[in-house]
Amino acid sequence: MATGVQMLVTTTAVLVLRLSFAAAGGDVFSKEIQTLTCKSTTGSQREVQIGADGEVAVLTEGHATLPGSKIKLECPARNHTFDPELQSLGGKTEDKKRIESVYVDLKINTSEPLQTAIRGATGTTDGAPSNDNTTVTLTFPQLPNTQNTIYIRCKPTTAGEPLDTDSADVGGDAKKVCVFAVTVTPPLPQGPQSCAVPGSVVLGIPGEGDTTQFSCGSEMKLSQTDEKKVYSNDCIT
What is the pTM of this model? Predict the structure, then answer.
């Protein structure tokens, strides 16, 4: 396939395959935006000790379960910033910043590039002066093959400063830090799924008459275009 993406559909027997093709664009399955804050009303929240010195994470959790899912993270507006640090997009979009790295363990010790943790994922600010880059929107155009959780912290700009108690239920405790935990789950065998990055995605048709559903990402196009034909596993014939 010219796009560099393989769609592998498995069946448990010789079946009549019925594939549901969605229009191009990785957001065709999910258009809702979930908002997580340190004083969360949409995500679940709990406290977890993460440091030997008694440091506690006020953990606000969100889940991305559909391709195209968007999750907005809001740090307290006063004297807080994201950790890992945001990077400037540069050029004509210099007001905007992006997430390049995320933590991959709850204790906030190990970080890796966002694209390594969740392929195809992006995270950018809206660049509006009013929010001082304290709001980031994560977008997941394609679901991973295995469940992954990433962590991003709201870090005080002054060491030892407590979280903004107007924006977080933490009681002004300097040992409490706001941590967002975003879990991205794999698709069900029947989808939906989106091909948004080069590689392979696997879907399945478990029984006769069942269907599977996927879309091509915004930079991809479907081939074969004949809904009655599919490629063999070499993606050529």
Answer: 0.78
